[in-house]
Amino acid sequence: MITHYATNATLAHQFISKRSELTIEPTVNTPFLRYSCAHQLLMIKGSSVKPDMHEFYSNALETFKTELRDSDRLKVYLCFKNLNTSTAKVLFDLFKYLRMRAVRGTDVQVVWGAEVTNQEMIETGRDFSEIYELKFRFLTDLDF
Taking the model in full, what pTM does it have? Predict the structure, then answer.
């Protein structure tokens, strides 16, 4: 198994084209991101508030979709401290994709995490779950 660590999305671009794992460490404005082909997993945790989050997420999400297109199970863990509208747009596309996969029979597991005191983020997850008709598992005992 190949594992790559990158400090930003730009460095990740050169590694992610292989069936592998990718980890991007968090910054003040970007979250921790882990993609694992072997575990059929995408994990995002932290603050996602950089002005152009599409650039940050684009290669990881495209690889997630491409490498796991024939997988019968997908796991997505989303644990946000806060997010901006740029991140929300990225999530709209992700959930649209996950809904399409679920309709086609893929076992889609979405875990939405937030601090128990962050009611706005918990409600955001509930809204996404309802809009895209995806069953979310909610976690609220997280430590950021």
Answer: 0.84
Is residue 48 a contact partner of residue 87, using CB atoms and an 8 Å limit? yes
How would you list the strands of the sheet with 41-48, edge to edge?
3-6, 21-24, 32-36, 41-48, 73-83, 107-113, 136-139
Q: What is the CATH number of the domain that holds 7?
A: 3.30.750
- Is residue 144 domain-resident? no
Residue 55 phi/psi, 5-degree rounding, is -60, -40
Q: How far apart are CA 109 and CA 27, in angstroms?
A: 27
Residue keyed to tokens 């990718």: 22
pLDDT in tens, 18-59: 557 899 999 999 999 999 999 999 999 999 999 999 999 999
